[in-house]
Each structure stands twice: as structure tokens, then as C-alpha cells.
Amino acid sequence: KENLIHSRTCVYNINYHVVWSVKYRRKILSAEIETYLKELVQKIASDKGFTVHLFEVGEGDHIHCFVSAPPKLSVNIVKYLKGITGRKLFEKYPAIRQKLWKGQLWNHSYYVETIGSVSEENIRRYIEHQSKSY
After folding, report:
1. Which terminus of the chain, N or C, has less C-beta within 10 A?
2. Are 14 and 71 in contact (CB under 8 A)?
């Protein structure tokens, strides 16, 4: 019962490990951009009704998140995170557009895993130990 969180339509949330990368794996996610992204992702989650427990940038070119959301939001989480962050990053840091082609920040692909087969602790440890090279 401690892990149950009541939302508008259900009495439980599902935990996800979400990963996405910069187009062409360009290493453009500096420490400054990471700080801005962390704040932005927390705001998006708050506005849309889900929770981001962990957020890390790995090697300057990809993102790992540990997210809890009600089932009805599950299909939209990545769309919200990639779409809004991409637009806001280009607005705040227009110079990063020069390192990419066709005006797209994020790669089209992403990875989402529901947490169940792997323990929450293992996922947390994995995300927290992503190497950073700025």
C-alpha cells in the first residue's frame, strides 16, 4: 500500500525507465543544459500529472529517467518529454541547432521499460551511475 498513489482515474501508478538520445549522438548536453533540463522535466511532469524520480544525462548525448505515471498517461510520457524539452532547449540555447541537421534535437527512437522484471533499486542504481563527460 505504501507504493500506491491515488490519481484521478486510478489508485496506482506504473514505474518506467525511459531513455532517449540526441540526434546523431552529438555530445551537446553540457552541465548547464543538464541543470536546465532537470528543472524543465520536473515542470513538465508536474503539469502533465506524472512524477520523475530520477533524471540523468549520460555521456552528454542521452537521457535516462525513472518515471511513475498513471496508466492513461503511459503512451504520452515520451511525447511530452521529448517534444517540450526539444522546443524549449532550442529557444534557450539556439547555438545547439548549429551542431544538428534538419532542426531536430532528439533521435526518433527511444526506450521505455516498465519496472517489474527488474527491481526498482537496480534501475535507480543504473541511472545514478551513468557516466558524465562534458
Report:
1. N
2. yes
Q: How far apart are CA 57 and CA 72, in angstroms?
A: 27
The CA–CA distances, whole Å, from 66 to 49, 54, 76 equal 15, 5, 15
Q: DSSP states of 8-31 as a string?
A: SS-S--EEEEEEEEEGGG-----H
> 72 is written with which cell numbers?
492513461
β strands within 59-100, DSSP E: 62-69
| pLDDT digits 0-9 by tens, 39-74 | 999 999 999 999 999 999 999 999 999 999 998 898
Of 36, 93, 110, 126, which one is the catalytic site residue? 126
Show the cell assigned to 133. Answer: 563527460
Q: Please confirm, yes or no, whether 80 is among the known catalytic residues.
A: no
- Which amino acid type is present at position 41? V
